[in-house]
Amino acid sequence: MPPDLALGRRPGLGARLSPAWRGTLVRIALAWLALIGVFAPDWARIADQWWNSSTYNHMVLVPPLVAWLAWQRREQVMAFAPATWLPGLVAFGALLFVWALGALSGFDLLRQAAVVGLLPASLLSLAGPRVFAALMFPLAYMVFMVPFGDELVPVLQMITAKLTVALVNLSAIPAAIDGVYIDTPAGLFEVAEACSGVKFLIAMVALGVFVAHVGFSSWRRRAAFMVLCIVAPIVGNGLRAFATIFMAQYVGAERAAGIDHLIYGWVFFATIIALVIGLAWRHFDRAVDDPMVDVEAVERSPLISRLARASASAASGTIGLVLLVAVAIGWVALADGRSATLPARIALLEVPGWQRVDYAPAYPWEPRAAGAEHRLLGRYADAHGHRVDVFYALYSVQREGQEAGGFGEGALRAESGWSWLGAGPAQDQARADRLRADNGTERLALTFYRTGDLLSGNNLALKLAVLRDRALLRRRPTALLILSSEAGEQGSPATGLAEFQRAAGAVGPWMDRIASAR
User: Where does this chain mainly localize (predicted)?
Assistant: First the structure.
């Protein structure tokens, strides 16, 4: 009798691993290390957002949670024989294609989602569909390693502002809302980006998915719990904003803001968590000792059984992974080496009925266009007193650090003293934004993107056009045009902008003439 059994001890996990499992684990570990190394710039950006952005600080906990979830399944997973599965290369190749699309279009979210997805896809290829099915949830939970959610900020700002002003009015305090600004007797309050509650919503959803899986077995209860995890942080954030405005009516805006800063943050979020978990605790229906994987169900699955037949040698799977990575990286490198030829200098064009005047805004305003080879900023005025500010930027290529539609680029520059007030009047080929400066100055900005035949204010349309051109190795410049006007004595900013566009003619050809220095 082996000594371990004679003493009543169970052999360690390493002793119970079969040779097939040992080889598979080594290949998976090497593959994951290689993928993290090859795509190190993407992983570095992901880690930077985890560590330096408060919206994504909670994501540093996701890898340990994934490891814990996988460890809880170790006994059940070992019941399956691992096998290299060549069809898994299709999923792996598809994710590399997504990564390439993100790299070619300058869409970081696609790149980052793809590099995270490459890890479970490589496991599917190297261990087979049965092992993948047994580890399905922890592998799927890796999606919360991807920094996403900033796109929700404008929507959440508006929701918070409307919920807050409704509560303020219910409390008999007179209040008026204009975009994300709420005017009360105690002062003007802004629902800024940091007050949108996006970081709490994202973190709560990530926590909710984990708790729903571990604590519930009923899908109805899981769904109800997830609805609570979405609603609670949104409503809680609205109540917090209302409480700040309510207190300001009695103690002043400055003291109310100071109190808000004391409770706002992870203390506030911890309170929401405690309330949600406390409410759901008595409804947990999953026993602590329930197995995480139904081994028999996986073994009996006709679909998984049919898929598992397509096994292959470990060498062929490894070679397939390496070749696919090489093709994707080579394609992107080839596209990165191509950029459009630009003129040595460009200048703003003459516009009939309008004259160039000194640029003297009521509050400093200059859009951001990082990576653009040419930038122009000037002011036009007509005989009726309308003034229009024109910002133009020209890029030879769109890639990391040179994105006309990148985050923080364009009319609303971070930490510039300007805030987003709301969407402006609808435009056919432009994005309209109302901005407000710290001194109360308001500005209407129309943003146009131009590349090839595209003229649009839609950032997604720009990325798709750039993606198409770069994928086909075409060299085309990209231009950014922002027409803007301050609210003031000269009349409606929208009227001045409309008159300027009418005098300048079609916007697309006008932008093309600047780009060609004609």
Answer: membrane
User: Crossing angle for the helix pair 198-215 and 266-281, nearest 10 degrees?
Assistant: 30
**pLDDT band (50, 70, 90) for residue 262:** low
Domain locations in the chain as residue ranges: 10-147+301-336, 151-281, 354-515
Residue found by looking up tokens 């729903």 in the block: 212
Strands 187-190 vs 181-184: parallel, antiparallel or unpaired: antiparallel
Q: Which of 347, 359, 356, 360 is nearest to 380 (CA)?
A: 356
pLDDT (0 to 100) of residue 6: 43
Phi-psi region of 440 (alpha: psi -120 to 50; beta: other; left: phi over 0): left
Residue with tokens 């630009």: 342
Other CB atoms within 10 A of residue 454 CB: 20
Rounded Cα distance between 355 and 197, Å, is 45
Kindly list the distances between the CA atom of residue 86 and the CA atoms of 32, 122, 318, in Å, as whole numbers in the listed order. 17, 10, 10
Q: How far is CA 369 from the centre of its chain?
A: 20
The alpha-helical segments, DSSP class H, found in 266-409 are 266-281, 295-300, 302-308, 314-336
* Average of per-residue pLDDT values in the chain: 89
Q: How far is CA 346 from CA 255, 394, 399, 403, in A?
A: 51, 9, 22, 20
Query: Per-residue confidence at 408, pLDDT binned at 50, 70, 90?
Result: confident
In whole angstroms, what is the distance from residue 479 CA to residue 165 CA? 40
Q: Mapping DSSP to helix (H, G, I), strand (E, B) and coil, where does residue 409 land?
A: coil
Residues 37, 46: Cα–Cα separation, whole Å: 14
Q: Give me the helix-helix angle, 108-127 and 88-105, nearest 10°.
A: 170
The token pair at 454 is: 């595209």
CA gap 442, 430 in Å, rounded: 19
Q: How far apart are CA 139 and CA 116, in angstroms?
A: 10
Return the H-helix or E-strand segment holding 376. strand 374-382
357 with 380: CB under 8 angstroms?
yes
Closest CA to 507 of 497, 492, 494: 497
Choose between 240 and 225: higher pLDDT.
Answer: 225
- Model confidence pLDDT, tens digit, residues 145-164: 999 888 888 899 999 999 99
Structure tokens at 134: 């047994």
Question: What contacts 200, CB < 8 A, 6 or more positions away?
Answer: 233, 236, 237, 268, 269, 272
Rounded to whole angstroms, the Cα distance separating 145 from 58 reads: 9
**Overall residue count recorded for the chain in this entry:** 518
pLDDT of 13 over the 50 cut: yes
Residue 387 pairs in a beta bridge with 381
